[in-house]
Design a protein that fits this description.
about 150 residues; alpha+beta; elongated
Length: about 150
């Protein structure tokens, strides 16, 4: 007598795999969104730190020129606005490239806008008197990105 799986056993295994995958796939999608948000939080922290460092470097040189832009050149966060000597240093070692989809940065007028990956809501940031901050600090998405 040959030993093999019956058709009912095979169907049962396929159903169990289907149920497990229907639970796992949405969780993996949420994990990716969480990773995109964590990446945005890290970028915000790096930009804030870079702006503070640049402000201190300028103060040490006796230059109190207000930093009013972060996108001179290519990329969203590429270079600072020029100081009194016309020098514009890098904001980050690798500039953040802009895009037009969710989970990325773009420039809209004087604002640097992050598109939330979960909802697609835009979260605008601005550089106000040398401080990189969220425009609407009471917004839930803003709180998520700056907590």
């Amino acid at each position: 007598m040959k030993k093999a799986f019956t058709m009912i056993e095979l169907v049962f295994v396929i159903v169990v795999i289907g149920i497990l995958s229907s639970i796992a796939i949405p969780r993996f999608a949420a994990t990716r969104d969480d990773a995109e948000i964590a990446k945005a939080i890290a970028t915000i922290g790096a930009v804030k730190s870079s702006v503070a460092t640049e402000r201190q470097k300028r103060a040490i040189r006796g230059d109190y020129t207000v930093i009013n832009a972060l996108n001179v050149g290519g990329g969203v966060f590429n270079r600072f606005s020029a100081d009194k000597d016309g020098v514009s240093d890098k904001v980050l070692e690798t500039p953040v490239q802009g895009c037009a989809s969710n989970g990325c940065w773009s420039v809209a007028g004087a604002n640097y806008v992050y598109m939330m990956p979960t909802s697609g809501n835009p979260v605008p940031f601005t550089l106000n008197n040398g401080v990189f901050e969220c425009v609407n600090q009471a917004d839930a998405d803003c709180i998520t990105l700056t907590q």
